[in-house]
Amino acid sequence: MTTIEKPIWDDVEEEVVDEVMRMSNEELMNRARLLDAEIRFMKSELHHVDHEIKVKQAKVKESKSKIKMNKALPYLVANVVEVSISVLSDISQLLDVTPQDYEKEDGANVDLDSQRKGKCAVIKTSTRQTYFLPVIGLVPPEELKPGDLVGVNKDSYLILEKLPPEFDSRVKAMEVDERPTERYSDIGGLDRQIQELIEAVVLPMTHKDRFEAIGIQPPKGVLLYGPPGTGKTLLARACAAQTKSTFLKLAGPQLVQMFIGDGAKLVRDAFQLAKEKEPSIIFIDELDAIVAPSKDVNYEELARCTDDFNGAQCKAVCVEAGMIALRRNASEITHEDYMDAILEVQAKKKTNLNYYA
Protein backbone atom coordinates (compact mmCIF):
# COMPACT_ATOMS: atom_id res chain seq x y z
CA MET A 1 0.00 0.00 0.00
CA THR A 2 1.46 3.32 -1.06
CA THR A 3 1.31 6.48 0.98
CA ILE A 4 0.93 9.95 -0.54
CA GLU A 5 3.39 12.40 0.97
CA LYS A 6 2.11 15.79 2.02
CA PRO A 7 3.53 18.72 0.00
CA ILE A 8 5.88 21.06 1.82
CA TRP A 9 3.84 24.17 1.00
CA ASP A 10 0.87 22.64 2.82
CA ASP A 11 2.87 22.68 6.06
CA VAL A 12 3.89 26.29 5.45
CA GLU A 13 0.29 27.27 4.74
CA GLU A 14 -0.87 25.62 7.96
CA GLU A 15 1.77 27.48 9.97
CA VAL A 16 0.67 30.81 8.44
CA VAL A 17 -2.96 30.05 9.19
CA ASP A 18 -2.14 29.15 12.78
CA GLU A 19 -0.13 32.36 13.18
CA VAL A 20 -2.97 34.46 11.78
CA MET A 21 -5.49 32.77 14.03
CA ARG A 22 -3.41 33.66 17.10
CA MET A 23 -3.18 37.36 16.11
CA SER A 24 -5.62 39.97 17.41
CA ASN A 25 -7.73 42.25 15.22
CA GLU A 26 -5.41 45.21 15.82
CA GLU A 27 -2.35 43.17 14.85
CA LEU A 28 -4.09 42.01 11.68
CA MET A 29 -4.92 45.61 10.75
CA ASN A 30 -1.30 46.68 11.27
CA ARG A 31 -0.03 43.77 9.21
CA ALA A 32 -2.46 44.60 6.39
CA ARG A 33 -1.36 48.27 6.37
CA LEU A 34 2.31 47.20 6.19
CA LEU A 35 1.56 44.88 3.29
CA ASP A 36 -0.36 47.61 1.47
CA ALA A 37 2.55 50.04 1.90
CA GLU A 38 5.00 47.44 0.65
CA ILE A 39 2.82 46.72 -2.38
CA ARG A 40 2.59 50.43 -3.22
CA PHE A 41 6.38 50.78 -2.90
CA MET A 42 6.95 47.75 -5.16
CA LYS A 43 4.54 49.15 -7.76
CA SER A 44 6.30 52.52 -7.75
CA GLU A 45 9.68 50.78 -8.12
CA LEU A 46 8.30 48.70 -10.98
CA HIS A 47 6.96 51.83 -12.69
CA HIS A 48 10.34 53.56 -12.22
CA VAL A 49 12.21 50.58 -13.69
CA ASP A 50 9.82 50.43 -16.66
CA HIS A 51 10.42 54.13 -17.27
CA GLU A 52 14.21 53.67 -17.15
CA ILE A 53 13.98 50.73 -19.57
CA LYS A 54 11.98 52.83 -22.03
CA VAL A 55 14.49 55.69 -21.73
CA LYS A 56 17.42 53.31 -22.30
CA GLN A 57 15.67 51.71 -25.28
CA ALA A 58 15.04 55.14 -26.77
CA LYS A 59 18.72 56.06 -26.31
CA VAL A 60 19.82 52.76 -27.87
CA LYS A 61 17.51 53.34 -30.83
CA GLU A 62 18.80 56.89 -31.22
CA SER A 63 22.42 55.73 -30.99
CA LYS A 64 21.83 53.01 -33.60
CA SER A 65 20.27 55.54 -35.95
CA LYS A 66 23.24 57.92 -35.45
CA ILE A 67 25.72 55.09 -36.04
CA LYS A 68 23.84 54.04 -39.17
CA MET A 69 23.82 57.64 -40.40
CA ASN A 70 27.54 58.11 -39.67
CA LYS A 71 28.42 54.79 -41.31
CA ALA A 72 26.77 55.80 -44.55
CA LEU A 73 29.08 55.24 -47.50
CA PRO A 74 31.37 56.52 -48.89
CA TYR A 75 34.09 56.41 -46.21
CA LEU A 76 37.24 58.45 -46.16
CA VAL A 77 40.17 56.03 -46.45
CA ALA A 78 43.05 56.45 -43.99
CA ASN A 79 46.06 54.58 -42.64
CA VAL A 80 46.78 54.05 -38.95
CA VAL A 81 50.08 55.70 -38.02
CA GLU A 82 50.20 54.95 -34.29
CA VAL A 83 48.01 53.55 -31.50
CA SER A 84 48.95 54.50 -27.92
CA ILE A 85 47.49 55.21 -24.49
CA SER A 86 45.79 58.54 -23.87
CA VAL A 87 47.66 61.57 -22.55
CA LEU A 88 45.66 61.63 -19.29
CA SER A 89 46.49 58.01 -18.53
CA ASP A 90 50.16 58.75 -19.19
CA ILE A 91 50.14 61.73 -16.78
CA SER A 92 48.24 59.74 -14.13
CA GLN A 93 50.87 56.99 -14.24
CA LEU A 94 53.65 59.56 -14.03
CA LEU A 95 52.15 61.36 -11.00
CA ASP A 96 50.79 58.14 -9.43
CA VAL A 97 47.26 59.54 -9.16
CA THR A 98 43.88 58.61 -10.59
CA PRO A 99 41.48 60.95 -12.42
CA GLN A 100 39.07 60.70 -9.45
CA ASP A 101 41.68 62.38 -7.22
CA TYR A 102 41.33 65.70 -9.04
CA GLU A 103 39.10 68.14 -7.17
CA LYS A 104 36.10 69.46 -9.05
CA GLU A 105 34.64 72.87 -8.37
CA ASP A 106 30.92 73.46 -8.64
CA GLY A 107 30.06 75.29 -11.85
CA ALA A 108 33.56 74.93 -13.29
CA ASN A 109 34.05 74.14 -16.96
CA VAL A 110 34.98 70.50 -17.55
CA ASP A 111 37.12 69.43 -20.49
CA LEU A 112 35.62 66.08 -21.45
CA ASP A 113 38.37 65.29 -23.99
CA SER A 114 41.04 65.56 -21.30
CA GLN A 115 39.16 63.17 -19.01
CA ARG A 116 38.75 60.37 -21.51
CA LYS A 117 40.64 57.22 -20.66
CA GLY A 118 41.82 54.43 -22.94
CA LYS A 119 43.79 54.40 -26.16
CA CYS A 120 44.12 57.09 -28.80
CA ALA A 121 45.29 56.93 -32.40
CA VAL A 122 47.03 58.94 -35.09
CA ILE A 123 45.78 58.46 -38.66
CA LYS A 124 46.83 59.76 -42.06
CA THR A 125 44.07 60.20 -44.61
CA SER A 126 44.22 59.73 -48.36
CA THR A 127 44.38 63.53 -48.66
CA ARG A 128 47.79 63.39 -46.90
CA GLN A 129 46.47 65.03 -43.72
CA THR A 130 47.38 63.67 -40.27
CA TYR A 131 44.86 63.68 -37.40
CA PHE A 132 45.04 62.78 -33.70
CA LEU A 133 41.99 60.88 -32.41
CA PRO A 134 41.48 60.96 -28.61
CA VAL A 135 38.53 58.60 -29.23
CA ILE A 136 39.24 55.92 -31.81
CA GLY A 137 35.69 55.05 -32.85
CA LEU A 138 33.80 51.81 -33.43
CA VAL A 139 36.81 49.53 -33.95
CA PRO A 140 38.43 48.12 -30.75
CA PRO A 141 41.97 49.51 -30.27
CA GLU A 142 43.31 45.96 -29.79
CA GLU A 143 42.47 45.16 -33.42
CA LEU A 144 44.42 48.12 -34.82
CA LYS A 145 48.12 48.27 -35.61
CA PRO A 146 50.27 50.76 -37.54
CA GLY A 147 49.80 50.48 -41.27
CA ASP A 148 46.22 49.17 -41.17
CA LEU A 149 43.79 50.51 -43.74
CA VAL A 150 40.62 51.93 -42.13
CA GLY A 151 37.48 53.75 -43.17
CA VAL A 152 36.81 56.96 -41.22
CA ASN A 153 33.96 59.46 -41.06
CA LYS A 154 34.38 62.42 -43.40
CA ASP A 155 33.55 64.98 -40.69
CA SER A 156 34.60 63.55 -37.30
CA TYR A 157 37.37 61.25 -38.65
CA LEU A 158 36.28 58.52 -36.21
CA ILE A 159 37.34 55.04 -37.32
CA LEU A 160 34.19 53.22 -38.43
CA GLU A 161 35.51 50.05 -40.03
CA LYS A 162 38.73 48.16 -40.63
CA LEU A 163 39.24 47.68 -44.36
CA PRO A 164 40.95 44.69 -46.01
CA PRO A 165 44.61 45.26 -46.95
CA GLU A 166 45.18 46.97 -50.28
CA PHE A 167 47.40 45.18 -52.78
CA ASP A 168 48.88 46.48 -55.99
CA SER A 169 47.01 45.26 -59.08
CA ARG A 170 50.31 44.00 -60.45
CA VAL A 171 50.74 41.86 -57.33
CA LYS A 172 47.24 40.38 -57.64
CA ALA A 173 48.06 39.41 -61.23
CA MET A 174 50.98 37.32 -59.92
CA GLU A 175 48.63 34.83 -58.28
CA VAL A 176 47.95 31.79 -60.46
CA ASP A 177 44.18 31.30 -60.63
CA GLU A 178 44.29 27.51 -60.99
CA ARG A 179 46.28 25.43 -58.54
CA PRO A 180 49.28 23.69 -60.13
CA THR A 181 48.67 20.04 -61.00
CA GLU A 182 52.23 19.03 -61.97
CA ARG A 183 53.73 15.95 -60.32
CA TYR A 184 57.30 14.92 -59.72
CA SER A 185 56.80 12.01 -62.13
CA ASP A 186 56.30 14.57 -64.93
CA ILE A 187 59.90 15.77 -64.49
CA GLY A 188 62.65 13.50 -65.76
CA GLY A 189 66.34 13.38 -64.94
CA LEU A 190 66.18 15.55 -61.81
CA ASP A 191 65.78 12.97 -59.06
CA ARG A 192 68.52 14.47 -56.88
CA GLN A 193 67.18 18.01 -57.28
CA ILE A 194 63.63 16.81 -56.51
CA GLN A 195 64.80 15.15 -53.30
CA GLU A 196 66.68 18.28 -52.20
CA LEU A 197 63.66 20.44 -53.00
CA ILE A 198 61.36 18.17 -50.99
CA GLU A 199 63.69 18.38 -47.99
CA ALA A 200 64.12 22.17 -48.23
CA VAL A 201 60.59 23.30 -49.19
CA VAL A 202 57.97 20.57 -48.82
CA LEU A 203 58.92 18.98 -45.50
CA PRO A 204 59.06 22.31 -43.55
CA MET A 205 55.49 23.01 -44.70
CA THR A 206 53.99 19.54 -44.22
CA HIS A 207 56.01 18.22 -41.25
CA LYS A 208 57.03 21.30 -39.29
CA ASP A 209 56.94 19.36 -36.01
CA ARG A 210 59.82 17.13 -37.12
CA PHE A 211 62.12 20.13 -37.48
CA GLU A 212 61.01 21.52 -34.12
CA ALA A 213 61.64 18.16 -32.44
CA ILE A 214 65.21 18.07 -33.76
CA GLY A 215 65.74 21.75 -32.97
CA ILE A 216 66.81 23.03 -36.40
CA GLN A 217 65.45 25.94 -38.42
CA PRO A 218 64.43 24.95 -41.98
CA PRO A 219 65.43 27.09 -44.97
CA LYS A 220 62.91 29.67 -46.17
CA GLY A 221 63.86 29.52 -49.82
CA VAL A 222 66.04 27.91 -52.47
CA LEU A 223 67.90 29.19 -55.54
CA LEU A 224 67.25 27.23 -58.75
CA TYR A 225 69.82 27.96 -61.46
CA GLY A 226 70.42 26.56 -64.91
CA PRO A 227 69.80 27.21 -68.62
CA PRO A 228 66.23 27.83 -69.83
CA GLY A 229 64.10 24.73 -70.27
CA THR A 230 65.75 22.57 -67.60
CA GLY A 231 62.64 22.28 -65.40
CA LYS A 232 63.03 25.03 -62.80
CA THR A 233 59.43 26.25 -63.12
CA LEU A 234 58.12 22.67 -63.22
CA LEU A 235 59.91 21.89 -59.96
CA ALA A 236 58.37 24.92 -58.25
CA ARG A 237 54.87 24.10 -59.53
CA ALA A 238 55.22 20.48 -58.43
CA CYS A 239 56.15 21.61 -54.91
CA ALA A 240 53.10 23.90 -54.83
CA ALA A 241 50.87 21.04 -55.99
CA GLN A 242 52.20 18.64 -53.35
CA THR A 243 51.79 21.15 -50.50
CA LYS A 244 48.44 22.49 -51.86
CA SER A 245 49.84 26.01 -51.65
CA THR A 246 48.96 29.24 -53.42
CA PHE A 247 51.43 29.75 -56.27
CA LEU A 248 52.63 33.32 -56.86
CA LYS A 249 54.78 33.81 -59.94
CA LEU A 250 56.61 37.05 -60.65
CA ALA A 251 59.44 37.91 -62.98
CA GLY A 252 62.65 39.67 -62.05
CA PRO A 253 62.20 42.51 -64.58
CA GLN A 254 58.94 43.45 -62.82
CA LEU A 255 60.95 44.41 -59.74
CA VAL A 256 62.99 46.97 -61.69
CA GLN A 257 60.71 50.01 -61.91
CA MET A 258 61.20 53.57 -63.03
CA PHE A 259 60.60 55.17 -59.63
CA ILE A 260 62.70 54.55 -56.53
CA GLY A 261 60.90 52.37 -54.00
CA ASP A 262 58.28 51.08 -56.45
CA GLY A 263 60.00 47.72 -56.87
CA ALA A 264 60.48 47.35 -53.12
CA LYS A 265 56.76 48.02 -52.61
CA LEU A 266 55.93 45.27 -55.10
CA VAL A 267 58.05 42.80 -53.12
CA ARG A 268 56.42 43.83 -49.82
CA ASP A 269 52.93 43.51 -51.28
CA ALA A 270 53.77 40.13 -52.81
CA PHE A 271 54.92 38.72 -49.48
CA GLN A 272 51.93 40.28 -47.69
CA LEU A 273 49.57 38.65 -50.21
CA ALA A 274 51.37 35.33 -49.71
CA LYS A 275 50.89 35.67 -45.96
CA GLU A 276 47.17 36.37 -46.42
CA LYS A 277 46.78 33.25 -48.59
CA GLU A 278 49.13 30.94 -46.69
CA PRO A 279 50.41 28.34 -47.31
CA SER A 280 52.04 30.00 -50.31
CA ILE A 281 55.04 29.56 -52.57
CA ILE A 282 56.57 32.61 -54.29
CA PHE A 283 58.45 31.82 -57.51
CA ILE A 284 60.65 34.68 -58.78
CA ASP A 285 61.64 33.95 -62.37
CA GLU A 286 64.56 35.59 -64.21
CA LEU A 287 66.10 36.76 -60.96
CA ASP A 288 69.39 37.57 -62.72
CA ALA A 289 67.61 40.34 -64.68
CA ILE A 290 67.46 42.55 -61.58
CA VAL A 291 71.18 43.42 -61.78
CA ALA A 292 72.88 43.80 -65.14
CA PRO A 293 76.15 41.80 -65.41
CA SER A 294 79.43 43.73 -65.43
CA LYS A 295 81.26 43.30 -68.73
CA ASP A 296 84.77 43.92 -67.36
CA VAL A 297 84.58 41.30 -64.58
CA ASN A 298 85.88 37.76 -65.10
CA TYR A 299 83.47 35.71 -63.00
CA GLU A 300 85.29 32.42 -63.65
CA GLU A 301 88.49 33.79 -62.16
CA LEU A 302 86.58 35.19 -59.16
CA ALA A 303 84.91 31.82 -58.64
CA ARG A 304 88.30 30.05 -58.63
CA CYS A 305 89.73 32.52 -56.13
CA THR A 306 86.75 32.22 -53.77
CA ASP A 307 86.39 28.45 -53.97
CA ASP A 308 86.86 27.90 -50.22
CA PHE A 309 84.88 30.99 -49.13
CA ASN A 310 81.57 30.78 -47.29
CA GLY A 311 78.61 33.10 -47.78
CA ALA A 312 79.75 35.64 -45.19
CA GLN A 313 83.20 35.88 -46.77
CA CYS A 314 81.75 36.34 -50.27
CA LYS A 315 79.64 39.20 -48.92
CA ALA A 316 82.75 40.67 -47.27
CA VAL A 317 84.52 40.54 -50.66
CA CYS A 318 81.72 42.56 -52.30
CA VAL A 319 81.70 45.13 -49.49
CA GLU A 320 85.49 45.44 -49.54
CA ALA A 321 85.49 45.85 -53.34
CA GLY A 322 82.97 48.66 -52.99
CA MET A 323 85.12 50.38 -50.36
CA ILE A 324 88.17 50.13 -52.63
CA ALA A 325 86.19 51.71 -55.48
CA LEU A 326 85.08 54.52 -53.16
CA ARG A 327 88.66 55.28 -52.17
CA ARG A 328 89.49 56.16 -55.78
CA ASN A 329 86.22 58.11 -56.23
CA ALA A 330 84.85 55.60 -58.76
CA SER A 331 81.18 54.96 -59.48
CA GLU A 332 81.67 51.36 -60.67
CA ILE A 333 83.44 48.29 -59.31
CA THR A 334 86.04 46.76 -61.62
CA HIS A 335 87.66 43.33 -61.77
CA GLU A 336 90.81 44.65 -60.08
CA ASP A 337 88.72 45.90 -57.15
CA TYR A 338 87.33 42.40 -56.62
CA MET A 339 90.79 40.82 -56.79
CA ASP A 340 92.18 43.30 -54.24
CA ALA A 341 89.17 42.62 -52.01
CA ILE A 342 89.76 38.85 -52.22
CA LEU A 343 93.37 39.34 -51.14
CA GLU A 344 92.19 41.54 -48.26
CA VAL A 345 89.64 38.97 -47.05
CA GLN A 346 92.14 36.11 -47.43
CA ALA A 347 94.67 38.03 -45.32
CA LYS A 348 92.07 38.54 -42.58
CA LYS A 349 91.09 34.87 -42.80
CA LYS A 350 94.68 33.69 -42.27
CA THR A 351 95.08 36.09 -39.34
CA ASN A 352 91.90 34.85 -37.67
CA LEU A 353 92.86 31.17 -37.99
CA ASN A 354 95.97 31.27 -35.81
CA TYR A 355 95.48 28.68 -33.08
CA TYR A 356 97.49 28.63 -29.86
CA ALA A 357 98.09 25.70 -27.52
TrEMBL record:
A single cellular component GO annotation: proteasome complex
Span of domain AAA+ ATPase: 218-340
Annotated keywords: ATP-binding, Nucleotide-binding, Proteasome
InterPro entries recorded: 26S_Proteasome_ATPase (IPR050221), AAA+_ATPase (IPR003593), ATPase_AAA_core (IPR003959), NA-bd_OB-fold (IPR012340), P-loop_NTPase (IPR027417), Prot_ATP_ID_OB_2nd (IPR032501)
Superkingdom, natural source: Eukaryota
GO molecular function: ATP binding; ATP hydrolysis activity
A Pfam family the protein falls into: Prot_ATP_ID_OB_C
Nucleotide-binding as UniProt keyword: yes
UniProt family annotation: Belongs to the AAA ATPase family.
PANTHER family: 26S PROTEASOME REGULATORY SUBUNIT (PTHR23073)
Protein name (Swiss-Prot/TrEMBL): 26S proteasome regulatory subunit T5
Protein source organism: Paragonimus westermani
